[in-house]
Each structure stands twice: as C-alpha cells, then as structure tokens.
Specification:
303 residues, alpha+beta, 6-stranded antiparallel β-sheet, two-stranded antiparallel ribbon, 28% helix, globular
Length: 303
C-alpha cells in the first residue's frame, strides 16, 4: 500500500468567495478570556484552572486541556461568520470565526442541511453524533474531542466545534502506527466505546501544546458492531488500568445524569443501550477488541 501524503485538518484547504483571512485573537485585557487562532490555546478553566466535573456529575480525574466550559459557551452563543469551506470533506464543512464580546475563536460548522444521506445512519443525525462523541469523551475524562455544541447557524442548525490547529512537525502517519503513545491508546478505547466507523489517520489532531484530539465523529454509535479504524495495533491486548478506570467512570455516567440525558437527545434508545453494552463488554473482558469479521476493518482511504 502506498504511503498517503501527510495532511492534517489544520492544513486542509479552505475555499470562499473571498480569500479567507487569518484569524487572530483579540488584544489581551478587558477581563474576558480570549481564544488563540486555530483554537490551539484556550482559556483556563473557571475557578483558576481547577478541573470541572465531567457530565453526569462524575468528577474528572484531571483537568481538561483548557477551558472547555468557556469554549462551549462561546461556541453556543457567539456569532458565526463563515470564512471558507473545507473542500476535502464529504459533508458540508465550513471554517468559521465565532465571536462574543471580546472573545473569538476559529471553529468548524457542519450544518445538518449539508449532510449527505447514508444507508446505515438516519438522515440528519450526524451532527448530534458528533456532539455525543464530545460528551462521552469528556465524561470518561479523556478529552479527546474538541469542545462541540449543537446550535443554529447561517445555514441552519448543525454541529459547531472548536478548530484545532495541528502541529505540522508531527508525522501523523508515524503517530498512527505508534504502540507506546498513551493518548493514542485512549483514542483506540474511545473508538471502541462509540463504535467509530471512520477513524482515519487524518482524523488525528496533535496540537502544538502536545495534546491529542480526534475529529469527524459523525458515523459513530451504530447499533451493529462496525468499528473501522487505523488503530488496531493493540487488538487482543489487555486494557491499561487507566482505561479500565475511565470505562468504569463512563459506566456510571451512562446510567444516569447529564451524559445519559445528552445521549438520549441525539441517539435512539437502542443506540444508547448498545453504547452501554460496549462499555460493559470492555469492562468484562478488559482487552482491546478485535476487528469485525463481516465489516471492513480499516477505512478507505486510510488517510
């Protein structure tokens, strides 16, 4: 198989009627938090950087990589200005600036109206699945998905997610093959929980602060086992103790509370039940899953 050309989400081509401008953070001061261009730097969590509670009232074991609460508020309430379009995306994916007072950030906006029909997922459901993926990741304490909300926008309701500027010095192909990267292994467990049918190399976003994110979680949470990923290097191996702890935390959050309420909003009852079952199976066997036998194990193209 030929090696794909390296091209992260932070490098994707944008197209607009006018040349997209570089987004810059507002000047410091004024008391409000500011967001750096590309979302690479984010404000401290409220309360001086202490860890917020994960959804469902379950305390996170460690602080998230920035002020998720502030970012979520900005994404949900700020004014969206479309700057361009990601031309390589299969669904309508718009690069935007979101502003609220003297806060601003770059973000991705995917309107439901721009979702292409799929045979195996209900029409108009992809945006809600992306929001669900964020909440699952946060509830487990992984924080592998950038802050994501569902909101109205210039082209109707859809998903809005903080833009992550990838660190171009990282070889993401080599990263995807790594066997000793803790966050990448967490990503593999996370994908097993949400039944990710499209974990490509280009969906890995190592940022300039050393945190690993993942993007494009619209085709997740299917009832049938259809895990399709480039991260099979741990198949059949025992789960790390940290993963077992995160899964146990997630089991509690799925039983009741904010996470359960959030998933009930976006997923069918059978999809929520299947998510709980996957968590239970991972905790029962405590091993990374094997590829499905009746479903392509790797997305194509893998990048």
């Amino acid at each position: 198989m030929p090696e794909p050309t390296r091209r992260g989400r932070g490098q994707r081509q944008r197209r607009a009627a006018d040349s997209p401008r570089q987004v810059h953070p507002p000047a410091a001061g004024g008391g409000a938090s500011t967001f750096a261009s590309g979302g690479g730097a984010r404000p401290s969590a409220p309360g001086g950087g202490s860890s917020p509670s994960a959804p469902g009232g379950v305390a996170s074991p460690a602080a998230p990589p920035g002020g998720d609460a502030d970012a979520l508020g900005l994404l949900a309430n700020g004014e969206l200005e479309v700057e361009g379009r990601l031309v390589v995306a299969s669904n309508a994916t718009l690069y935007c600036t979101v502003r609220d007072g003297n806060q601003e950030a770059a973000c991705v906006y995917k309107p439901v109206a721009g979702e292409r029909p799929l045979w195996d997922f209900p029409a108009g459901s992809l945006a809600g699945r992306e929001v669900s993926a964020y909440h699952v990741s946060a509830a487990a304490g992984w924080y592998l998905v950038p802050p994501t909300v569902y909101r109205d926008g210039p082209f109707g309701p859809g998903m809005c997610q903080l833009w992550i500027e990838s660190d171009e010095s990282v070889d993401v192909i080599a990263l995807a093959k790594s066997t000793d990267h803790p966050a990448l292994r967490e990503m593999a467990v996370f994908d097993a929980v949400i039944n990710n049918a499209d974990r490509k190399i280009g969906h890995l976003l190592p940022d300039k602060q050393g945190h690993l994110y993942g993007c494009d979680h619209g085709v997740c949470f299917g009832e049938d086992y259809k895990l399709r990923t480039v991260l099979w290097q741990w198949r059949g191996r025992d789960l790390p103790e940290s993963a077992v702890t995160a899964l146990d935390r997630l089991r509690g959050a799925l039983a009741e509370g904010d996470l359960r309420t959030e998933l009930d909003r976006w997923l069918s009852p059978d999809e929520v039940a299947a998510t709980r079952q996957r968590v239970e199976l991972l905790l029962e066997h405590k091993v990374h899953p094997f590829p499905p036998e009746d479903w392509p194990a790797v997305p194509w193209p893998p990048y």
